Amino acid sequence: MRESEGANVGGRAYRPLSERERRERAERTGGEPEFDFGASAESTPYIDYHHVDVLLSLQHPRTQEPAELSFYICGQVQELLFKLLFTEVNLARDLLFARRLDPALAVLRRTERTLRVLVTTWEPLSTITVSEFHNFRDELGEASGFQSYMYRQLEFALGNKSPRMAEAHRGVDWVYKQVDAALRAPSLYDAALSYLHSQGVELPAGCFTRDPAEPAPHDPAVQAAWARVYREPERHHGPYLLAEALSDLNYQYARWRSTHLLTVERVIGGRPGSGGTDGVGWLRRIAEHRFFPELSAARCTG
């Protein structure tokens, strides 16, 4: 496409702006904002790019309780971040399979920063009082974060595989197809072990022949391999950097789960969850989970 040509995305026309045009515009305005930014009677370039009108039309609280909007929007933000994380984790996985460590590490650093943002999404929710939540909780019906198919795909991409969890989504065909595909795809941890093996750190053949849709059993030989990396970080420099990047993800994800538990504990106490769980009891149990189990164990044993 030439610089002067336009394009059409989602039924809306736009025209790319070159670096030269941006520089000329800044000179023309003396560095001040351009007030004639191509707005039409129906839209602006900013609205068109982010589809802001669509995004801001997606909030439909069911009660008059003001706190419900915080609950609603924070939940939607989390879903968007799950989508971003799922995309980035799969990109890092593919780069590792291609033996492109440096760009994979860059993606993992960005993923870790995104996880930090995800953790903070519990902060507004932690301010909702018991009485405020009570004013709209019944309207949730059976809706539960446990049913999030984007979250489930992210868990699978990181290696926490569970065919049983995938089956929970079978009732919605288009959702189940996405979740099942994520279940059957190699995980980030599968790619990490593949890279580790390619760098001369010997691993059992079973690591590369098992069904990626099944949970991987804890393998002492894999733990020993990671321990060798930690004992000789200079010799195994690439695998060591990867191990630390994965550990950073583990840490931030554990913070997400723990903060989730604390928030729910504060807002609903010992009441049952909407999705059939016992609430904080279920969250307390899953908060103990860690991805990349042999790596986590190797950090403790050295």
From TrEMBL:
Q: Name one GO biological process term.
A: L-tryptophan catabolic process to kynurenine
Q: Where is the composition biased (Basic and acidic residues)?
A: 17-31
Recite the UniProt cofactor note for this protein: Binds 1 heme group per subunit.
Q: What are the protein's GO molecular function terms?
A: heme binding; L-tryptophan 2,3-dioxygenase activity; metal ion binding
Q: Give the record's keywords alphabetically.
A: Dioxygenase, Heme, Iron, Metal-binding, Oxidoreductase, Tryptophan catabolism
What Pfam families does the database record attribute to this sequence? Trp_dioxygenase
Task: Enumerate the catalysed reactions.
Answer: L-tryptophan + O2 = N-formyl-L-kynurenine
- What does the subunit section of this Swiss-Prot or TrEMBL entry state? Homotetramer.
Q: What is this protein called?
A: Tryptophan 2,3-dioxygenase
Enzyme Commission designation: 1.13.11.11
InterPro entries xrefs: Trp/Indoleamine_2_3_dOase-like, Trp_2_3_dOase
Residues that hold heme according to the record: H260
Record pathway: Amino-acid degradation; L-tryptophan degradation via kynurenine pathway; L-kynurenine from L-tryptophan: step 1/2
The family annotation for this protein states: Belongs to the tryptophan 2,3-dioxygenase family.
Role summary = Heme-dependent dioxygenase that catalyzes the oxidative cleavage of the L-tryptophan (L-Trp) pyrrole ring and converts L-tryptophan to N-formyl-L-kynurenine. Catalyzes the oxidative cleavage of the indole moiety.
The cofactor(s) it depends on are: heme
Query: Is the keyword DNA repair in the record?
Result: no
- Region feature (Disordered): 1-37
Enzyme class comes to oxidoreductase
Query: Where on this chain does substrate bind?
Result: R137
Highest taxon of source: Bacteria
